[in-house]
Design brief:
There is one protein chain. It is rod-shaped and about 75 Å long. The protein has two domains: 68 residues, no CATH class; 43 residues, no CATH class. The termini are far apart. Helix 3 crosses helix 5 and helix 4 crosses helix 5. By secondary structure, the chain is mainly α. It is built from seven helices and two strands. It has a two-stranded antiparallel ribbon with strand order 1-2. This is Transposase, IS66 Orf1. It comes from Stigmatella aurantiaca (strain DW4/3-1).
């Protein structure tokens, strides 16, 4: 026979016991931050619910954001090949252009640019900017 206290007891997440320790390892902190993000809501409400110090989650969520910023690749140069246009191509693309702006980076594609070149430039921009 089970008592009512036993039947209403909810199972604790695996990370919670480790999170109750005085210090968090980066791995435990990452689990707690992920759990908070998955659950949503305010940090203070999440920490209160689990009986953990509120400031610790704030510290580790900021630190994790800094780590994620450092992991992004730095902006670099992409090799480009410039060749003179044939006279017939110059007349085709006069005045035609498309401007693509992504996260503050603007790319202007003049008329007559090959699809392959545009794809390579946009792929390089995607790798660098993480779009």
């Amino acid at each position: 026979m089970t008592t009512s206290a036993e039947t209403t007891k909810t199972e604790e997440p695996g990370w919670l016991a480790a999170a109750r320790q005085p210090r968090w390892t980066p791995e435990i902190a990452a689990e707690v931050v992920r759990a908070w993000q998955k659950e949503g809501g305010a940090q203070s409400a999440f920490m209160r619910k689990h009986g953990l110090p509120r400031e610790r989650l704030r510290f580790w969520s900021r630190r994790r954001a800094e780590w994620e910023q450092k992991e992004k690749p730095a902006m670099g140069f992409v090799p480009v090949e410039v060749t003179p246009e044939a006279p017939s191509q110059r007349r085709q693309g006069v005045g035609e252009a498309v401007v693509v702006e992504v996260k503050g980076v603007r790319v202007r594609v003049e008329g007559g640019a090959s699809q392959e070149l545009v794809e390579r430039v946009l792929r390089a921009l995607q790798r660098v900017q993480g779009c």
